[in-house]
Amino acid sequence: MAQDEGLDVKWAGRPMVLGVGWANTLSVYDLMQSDATPAVNVEHKEPFSSFAFNKKEFDLLATADENGRLHIWQLPSSFKAVTDKQVEMNALIKLGNI
Which of 4, 40, 44, 61 allows an S-S link to 73, with CB 3.0 to 4.6 Å? Predict the structure, then answer.
């Protein structure tokens, strides 16, 4: 995602986790913990071209920069903890009804 492309948002494998990327920064939110404060901020020297969450290992994140380099990030162990997806879906629905 080049700086002129702006904002990129992707949901992770868990319903209440999403990433928001802009230029050189990717913020990962765990909405089960906080809806306003990122749980993790990932900084690149070069702007991001894309990012993706691992759908099986929730604590792994891949990013690519504009130079074509792939970066693998390990998120805090709290992202690896598997919660009941129905609990997270209910929380997401509740959040949408605010």
Answer: 61
89-95 contacts: CB < 8 A, separation 24 or more?
A: 89/15, 91/15, 91/16, 91/31, 91/32, 92/15, 92/16, 92/31, 95/31, 95/35
Buried b (16+ CB within 10 A) or exposed e, 14-34: bbbbbbebbbeebbbbbbbee
Order of strands across the sheet that contains 70-74: 48-53, 60-65, 70-74
Q: 69-94, pLDDT tens digit by residue?
A: 999 999 988 877 666 767 777 777 77
Say which residue the tokens 């629905």 belong to: 93
Task: Indicate the pTM of the whole model.
Answer: 0.75
Q: Which residues pair with 25 in a beta bridge?
A: 22, 43
